[in-house]
Amino acid sequence: MTSETATLRRIETSHSLRGLAGLLRVELRAWFPWRVLFLTIAGFGVFAMIYVPVRSEADLQFGILLFPFLGFWIAMLLISGVALTEGSVLGEIERGTASWLVGLPIGRPAVILAKFLAASSGIAATVFLTGSALYPILLDASRWGVTEFRVSELTEVTGGPIGMWGRFASLVDFGEWIVLLLAVSVFLMFVVAVMMLFGTVLRSRTAVFGLGLGVVGVFGGAALAGSFAAASPAGLIRVIIDVAQSKTPSMMIPFAASLLWTALVLALAVSRFNRRELA
After folding, report:
1. Pairing with 87, which of 7, 172, 198, 221 sits 20 to 30 Å away (CA)?
2. How many alpha carbons lie under 13 Å from residue 174 in its C-beta half-sphere?
3. CA–CA gap between residue 73 and residue 46 (Å, rounded)
4. For residue 103, what are the contacts with CB-CB under 8 A and spacing of at least 6?
């Protein structure tokens, strides 16, 4: 009588990003297609609210359409991004699903990264879908108003914050428009990372939401004031403003600095989540 022995090979699942792919698929389903579709429709709604009354005016001025639309649209995206991510991490902890997830072969860093990547992808998709679809309409609208000015009006154009609030505004070409959309997406990516961090530190959704809006306000104010703008995500707001005014922005430093800030904030979120008691 003979017997055979088999050697069982141990499956190693000890790396910190174990389970990332599967969890990311789950998180992406929370954003695609319904959240992205909702935010895209909301963006079109913001545009329509400004486009319809401006289009009915006899004295058409393109800047009266472009600048308010960008301002309200980006504000809507920021508030929506904060609102949709304020419970992303904290909600999992409150419901007890976070402790259940890390009890599976899923690393704690994978939880934060999956949520960050899904939210960033969904928001970026919204920005580019809405922005690209509206560009032809904006291009047609840019032919309505006066974009040229006389020498005697130079002081008015250069003295106003955005050319007398768009009296002589024009639309940038599509390549520069893509730069503007990219700047919006990267800034929102930073906001998502901040919301991930707050969710691992705080225990109140109201506090997470309020502080998220506070961070947006701080960097928005810094961009308008010009302080430390280029070396922080505030520099992206300057890029957006410059592109909208058909100016040539300084892009490399703001984009590189914003990605670095995002990576550092995300690393802090992972570190804090690794140490937080989930029970």
Report:
1. 221
2. 9
3. 6
4. none
The answer to whether the beta carbons of residues 198 and 266 sit under 8 Å apart is no
Identity (one letter) of the amino acid at 118? A
For the chain, give the DSSP string: ------PPPPPP--STTTTHHHHHHHHHHHHTTHHHHHHHHHHHHHHHHHHHHHHT-SS--THHHHHHHHHHHHHHHHHHHHHHHTTTTHHHHHHTHHHHHHHSS--HHHHHHHHHHHHHHHHHHHHHHHHHHHHHHHHHHTTTS-----GGGHHHHHHSTTHHHHTT--PPPHHHHHHHHHHHHHHHHHHHHHHHHHHHH-S-HHHHHHHHHHHHHHHHHHHHHTTT-TTSTHHHHHHHHHHHTT-----HHHHHHHHHHHHHHHHHHHHHHHHS---
The rounded distance, in Å, linking the Cα atoms of 83 and 70 is 20
> 3: buried, middle or exposed (CB in 10 Å: 19+, 13-18, 0-12)?
exposed
Q: What is the pLDDT of residues 2-52, one digit of tens each?
A: 445 545 444 445 677 888 999 999 999 999 999 999 999 999 999 999 999
- In 3D space, the residue among 110, 125, 87 whose CA is nearest the CA of residue 270 turns out to be 110
CA atoms of 245 and 242, how far apart (whole Å)? 5
User: How far from 151 is each of 17, 18, 145, 155, CA to CA, in Å?
Assistant: 61, 64, 18, 8
**Rounded-to-integer distance, Cα 73 and Cα 7, Å:** 61
Distance of CA 69 to the CA centre of its chain: 17
